[in-house]
Hints:
- The structure holds 2 protein chains of 2 kinds.
- By secondary structure, chain A is α/β, with parallel strands linked by helices.
- Chain A folds into 2 domains: 2-50 and 373-392 and 404-426, Roll (Urease, subunit C, domain 1), CATH 2.30.40.10; 54-361, Metal-dependent hydrolases (TIM Barrel, Alpha-Beta Barrel).
- Chain A has 13 helices and 19 strands.
- In chain A, helix 2 (101-114) links the parallel strand 7 (85-90) and strand 8.
- Chain B contains 12 helices and 9 strands.
- In chain B, the strands form 2 sheets. Chain B has a 5-stranded parallel sheet. In chain B, strands 2-1-3-4 form a 4-stranded parallel sheet, sandwiched between helices.
- Helices cover 39% and strands 14% of the residues of chain B.
- Chain A binds chain B through residues 192-194, 196-203, 269-270, 311, 314-319, and chain B through 12, 89-91, 109, 111-114, 116-117, 121, 131-135, 169, 172, 195-198, 200-201.
Amino acid sequence: MLCIKNGIVVDGINPEPYKADILVDGKEIIEIASEISTVADVTIDAAGKCVLPGFVDAHCHLREPGYEYKEDIGSGTRSAAAGGFTSIACMPNTHPAVDNAALVNFIKMRALEERAAKVYPIAAVTKGLKGEELTEMWELKKAGAVALSDDGKPIMNAGIMRLALQYARGFDMLIISHCEDLQLTGDGVMNEGYMSTVLGVKGITRAAEEVMVARDIILAETLKTPVHIAHVSTRGSVELIRQAKKRGVKVTCETAPHYFSAADEWVDGYDADTKVNPPLRTADDVEAIIEGLKDGTIDIIATDHAPHHRDEKEVEYSLAASGISGFETAFSLAYTHLVEPGVISLHQLVEKMSTRPADILNIDGGRLQVGKTADITVVDPAKEYTVDVSQFHSKGKNSPFHGRTLKGKVVHTIVDGRVVMENEKILV
Amino acid sequence: MALKRKDLLGIRGLSRDEIDEILNTAELMKYILIQDHKRTPHLQGRSIVTLFYENSTRTRLSFELASKYMSASMANVTAGSSSVAKGECLIDTGKTIESMGVDVVVIRHPVSGAPHILAKHVTASVINAGDGINEHPTQALLDMFTIRQKKGTINNLVVAIIGDILHSRVARSNIWGLTTMGAEVRVAGPATLMPPDIEDMGVKVFYNVDEALKGADVVMGLRLQKERQMKGLLPSIREYTRLYCINKERMLLARKDALIMHPGPINRGVEISSDIAEGEQSTINEQVTNGVAVRMALLYLLTRRNKDAVY
């Protein structure tokens, strides 16, 4: 048995945090009470810390199979655990792409070998992520895929997207849409605006994202079927989704920590660690993302953890790979930029990082409750530290937040009742 | 403040004093160029390499002659004829060159920011000879040098830059430099070739070239790449020429003594008419001469051992 004592519990259900001990037996939470006297085999003292339901990431890239030099399921899950994530859903843009049941099974099998975090595969919407033919969605679901996405690539053909939404609906499979009109993106590599003009870098108009957000909202609305919009980054997208939700469209969406923590000024100096897709937008967009998180337009925070090798980043800006290694800074960025300034409460952050992502993916987790699986993350909200990518467990050291001071740090992570990180040390 | 930088990556961020120092030094260098014996010891023992990932005639040759007139050892590397073609990355190439004892690397690259990346990874001085659509600082310096020689000052002059502003590193460098030196800068061109929010760089935007030319002291044409039309940014070269070509008739709108400048190579009859390019007001050939003087000045200033010394 494992007992987490003296912590402030933010359970994902009660808006008010409370002081309580949590007793775990095997994989299960068996008691939550103000003072538990049962003697446990392992005790974690969480005095001064907050005890949260383990974070659930609805969007990450583990790169296995095919790109193990960037990340593999071992390093990726250890990185997730270090960031307080107990369940993660990985995107299918591996090599080969996860567009068949055999690969879904491969990822599940590899995750069971590693055991640092639970891995839920997201499978492709179209064969080979080509945007042309639908995958065998029923078989993918049966194999264990929790959602479908061609993430990394948009489904440019609106007819195919409509068919996908229709067909997936038959099996309650959620489609996660990477919204980007490639014709509008052109050869742009950063946000289009004053900074792209100043830096002489080809810009990507916000319209590239917004046009497709609008398209997918309209498709979902006419079909009365759900759609989930990945990595929302612009004011216009937030407003489109806000209006759609008011009309009752079954649209949900996520943003990533870098879209509320960084802006296009960061590209000055041409450091490719600032290159990500969609690109870092303007301060005005950052403000809109924060408003969207506050008013609930943006349902969840997902990392879009996208590890890359140094050699793919230490190159000319337009030749560099897009993406940010995000697991290990996600909570700290959210705490620093959202909770500490009072934009949202810690309970609301838990909703966005644990409860709602679990609900949207329809997977276990997201709440601390007797009888529930013991996926638990303990954070120290008072701890300030400087981000050092050399300390990342991820193989991907590509973070524009290196050297920044953040507040709030994950200290313990418990997956299925097993302590996988204790005092910031990964044990698996 | 005198120029104490390791690198010259762009005009952006240069102070008025720094630009003045470069232009003042170039005056002295130009004097060397008109001698029969064009040889000075300023760069004796120094080693300079040009690393060009894009074709160039005048810029590369200008740097080469500038180096040789000042007695430097110099070599040219072009992307096609080196290990770059075998897939070596920029930083490795830079370190390889540096390891051969090179003091200055002059780089031209199709990607914006490439010289900045190189400069971060080598201890040699890096001079940007044109990066993507970002900057071409030595071109802007020679343009400013030419304007200053002809007009005495840059302050308060009206400079109209006409053409494909979006893809022009010459325009961007000149905007930074000319606004720093106190000129009123106007940019004119088709809206599809105008960068967003460029007004915030301190220039006036015109879509009507005639408006931009009114009362201008300097008219600067830019090369129109034919591929812009293929990419659909322009309906036809014909319409572009009718709307934006700098010709005799349009030049009547500028001041009588207005300078006509162009970084070259020119598309005769596209962005500038032949008679205007060769006319009395044209400084196109003198710009080329001044380019050597400015590059001599820069190579000298960046390699001075004692950067506090006043030339």
